[in-house]
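Incident log, structure service

09:12 report received: a user says their structure output differs between two submissions of the same chain.
09:20 pulled the input from the user's history:
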Amino acid sequence: MSGEEEENAAELKIGDEFLKAKCLMNCEVALILEHKYDQLQQMSDDPRNQVSQVFEKSLQYVKRFSRYKNPDAVKQVREILSRYQLTEFELCVLGNLCPETVEEAIAMVPSIKVSCAHFLLWCL
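09:34 re-ran on a clean worker, output below:
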């Protein structure tokens, strides 16, 4: 993003590198970290495999703010939201925040009002 442009998530001005990046919802990160945590616990005899405090706090955070716990539900949420030509950023914000109305979704992610009429129809 050039120095002249100001970042604005409402207009999806968040930088090309971020727009092209693969984003993960909190529930997806929770599944990944839980899997890694289980692996580390199985190898707990080795002191090099101890779980760091940062890792534990990260896992606690994403678990606390994950709306979906079941791996099948997590996959289904991404599949459904992927149908509506959302950017990764939009998809993850909506997947994390779970708006209950169209108005709430637009307030959280204003860019979907312009870019995603199909999504808005699905919400109705």
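09:41 both user submissions now match this output. Likely a transient worker issue. Closing.
09:42 reviewer note: Helices lie at 16-19, 26-42, 53-64, 71-82, 88-97, 102-108, 111-115, 117-123. Residues 26-42 form the longest helix (17 residues).
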